[in-house]
Prior knowledge:
six-stranded antiparallel sheet, 21% helix, Transferase(Phosphotransferase), domain 1, 13 helices, five-stranded antiparallel sheet, 19 strands, globular, Immunoglobulin-like, 3 domains, Phosphorylase Kinase, domain 1, alpha+beta, single chain
Amino acid sequence: MPAPPSSPSCPTTPESTPSAPFPPAGPTKPGTLTMTLHEAEGLSLPRGKKFVFSRRRGLASGSWWAMSPVFLPYAVVEFGGVRVRIAAVEGSGERPVWPGGTTKYNFEVEGREGEDGVEVGVFIRHPDPPPGEGGWTGQKGVEWVKVEGGTGRVRMGVWFVEEPPAAAELTVDEFELLAVLGAGTYGRVMQVRKKDTGRIYALKAVPKLVLVLCSKAQQAVDERLILAQINSLFTVPLEFAFQSPQKLYLGLVFINGGEHEHRKRQHRFTVDSARLYMAELVCALECLHGAGILHRDLKPDNALLDGDGHVLPCDFGLSESAMFDDGAFNFVTPEVLRGESYRRGVDWWALGVVLYKMLTGKLPFYAGSPKLTLQRISEGPVGSSMHLMQMPAPARDLVLRLLDRDAATRLGVRGAAEVRAHKFFEDIDWGKAVRKEYEMKFKPAVLNPSDLNNFHQRFTSQIPQDSVAEGRPLSSAEQDLFAGFSYARPDAELEGIERLDTGSIEDLAQFP
């Protein structure tokens, strides 16, 4: 099979391209294909390409694997028109190590005649990419697969769960509404308990009519698809989704996080603490971007912590209008203000704002009002010269390169690997970071799994109820916009795949 085309923003050349017919050729039953990518060994560059890397500055002659993290091989997994890019987190050119079981990618299998198999390609960045071919055989479980069209082998995991027989769709009446957790531009989130199992979830409810009138119906469906596609240590797992004639509902794992009254105080982080949190946010963005997901609303309120104190971003993929709500204008990029199209650079800009605030306790562009702040983002100085000079040189350089007003030259535009390679992170073991193996100094404490102490009382004091959606009923054509929204997570049926262990979290902005 032909290899996936390279991204224009990150030129590549195929180093080896394994691919395989999984599920088997011919008609299969509908279901979910889950894949993990672990490591490779014995990889080599195509004939005639080694000299390109041996002549690059900092590389030993003839040793193409002695390279910076920017040039570690990455993989592209494609099935059913869905493509996911997976970056190596450590290792070398011939022995790259990918996230493994910490990140699982789900693909929907339609079960149609002649459905294509999974295609896995291994690539390395290069300015002049030629096409490539190759193949691998179908499997189940974690195995080593020999590379065809190159040398070496790749260890990956494959699981297929057949779609269960159709069951009656969930309804909101099957849940006990416990508390209101928050509200956003298009809906609200409640803590709920499923009556038959007693399990606690966070249930997000969004009126369909609001989405239709704002031309956001497809985006809501896309959010469901995104949440179902990826299950990572850096995302909140989607457990189920259902709909009524008036509303959409997303059921997520409940995590004891939220706003705290004392989060309003200004805090400064030590450089070492900021480095660890930033490293995990880089891993999170790399995971999301690899799946084609832009966070678009990265800020301290949306950078929460799990029970061990590790970062867990939430609320990614929000609408553009949300970026001007509740103080989020402080994180808007210049290209958005100019009305230009944008890509993943919006998230790297926001990361620069977060780092500046961690190290100084201040926002770099805040000017007293939204209007003046947005004007300063467009054309004012980056932060305070005094604050910048107080930072260590690597931290200052990282802030300035992330807050580059030119989106074409902003650090991260060619991928997270160039952010990971920055001197600020030279002491970070990226394998430990992506597996969340660093011991975090702060671990939030809660009374019990359903504790609401970390959520703001302006929400939890409200009476939890599934209010009647206002407005006219939707037409048949409008209801069709939400076809395929319902979902039940298959992971519990996958032997050998662990569920994400989530615990209590607290807003990142309140850390000392």
